[in-house]
Amino acid sequence: MYGWIWRHLPGNAWVRALISIVLVLAVVYALFQYVFPWAEPLLPFNDVTVDGQ
Amino acid sequence: MARARNRIAGIISAFGELLITAGLVMGLFVVYSLWWTNVLADRAADQDGAQVRDRWADGPGALDTKDGIGFLHVPAMGDDEILVKQGTTSTILNNGVAGYYTDPIKSALPQDKKGNFTLAAHRDGHGAKFHNIHKLKTGDAIVFESKDTWYVYKVYKSLPETTKYNVDVLQPVPKESGKTKPGRYITLTTCTPMYTSDYRYIVWGELERTEKVDRDRTPPAELL
Fold first, then answer.
1. Cβ contact (<8 Å) for B28 and A32?
2. Which 3 state secondary structure label does DSSP give A29?
3. How many CB atoms are located within 10 Å of the residue B58 CB?
């Protein structure tokens, strides 16, 4: 999977490395900004009230 | 034969990469939960708290509930002041504040003659304002600061583990804490054990005295 991505990136090794870093940062940003805030209420880690629900 | 073996190797390595990716995502989720949500929540709470302080700057006065009704100081849990707002939904609590219950049992407010001032806040992440709730011992002070009054409560009972269905801990007279007569109580609730929310941790206190806030907002002896 990662090998496939690497082979399909344009440019020489340096350009590919740079693009890879940007891609990784974009994924991390998407996770922190959208995916985790969405997933968090669905997981049983942070319910602090007594509400019987 | 060699081709088939290559194919199998390819599938296995793709599967392995997926597992590694899943592990990294879970690791990042821990970073998010225990660090990033704290950063966001503390920033939000500091801003709101500063606004409340700004509005209070003209000296003691009538109760003012906009942006928050006041601050909770619990020396046994740490030096931070905890902004208190109305409501216990995650939208409110995720901003690094303690919320007073409106549901399922409506909280009394500290200035009420009788009742139970019931609060919830996060144990971990989102400011983790009640992280150290287990450090509260009988006799420890819980001080609530409103615009014009310091309310000094003393802890008299903890319940280290109960279920989320135990809403009776929020009753105006919390019988489970051993009280039978109406009084001015405070109840803190959060989740336990740490890092999960299988159970709830409850701490009860009773009002010992109140002090008028003076011009310099001199804190009561418990906070010095």
1. yes
2. helix
3. 8
**For chain A, which residues make up each domain, given as ranges?**
2-38
CA dist., res. B188 & res. B184, Å (int):
14
Is B191 designated active site? yes
B29 close to A (CB below 8 A): yes
B186 touches chain A (CB under 8 A): no
Beta strands in A2-52 (DSSP E): none
Q: Is A52 on the interface with B (CB under 8 A)?
A: yes
In chain B, which residue's Cα lies nearest the Cα of A39?
Answer: B29
| ipTM confidence | 0.89
Q: pLDDT tier at B212 (50, 70, 90 boundaries)? A: very high
Question: Would you list the DSSP string of B60-78?
Answer: S-S---TT-SEEEE-GGG-
Query: Measuring CA to CA, how many Å separate B207 from each of B68, B133, B182, B184, B223?
Result: 21, 18, 12, 6, 16
Chain A residue with the nearest C-alpha to that of B130: A48
Does pLDDT of B1 surpass 70? no
CB contact under 8 A, A31 and B32: yes
Q: For B107, what's the count of Cα atoms within 13 Å in the CB-facing half-sphere? A: 24
Taking CB atoms and an 8 Å limit, are A49 and B164 in contact across chains? yes
List the one residue out of B138, B141, B130, B126 whose CA is nearest residue B188: B130
Per-residue exposure over B76-93, b if at least 16 CB sit within 10 Å of its own CB, e if not: bbeebbbbbbeebebeeb
Tell me the pTM: 0.87
Q: Which residue of the set B41, B69, B191, B213 is catalytic?
A: B191
Q: Assign domain B49-223 to its CATH architecture.
A: Beta Barrel (2.40)
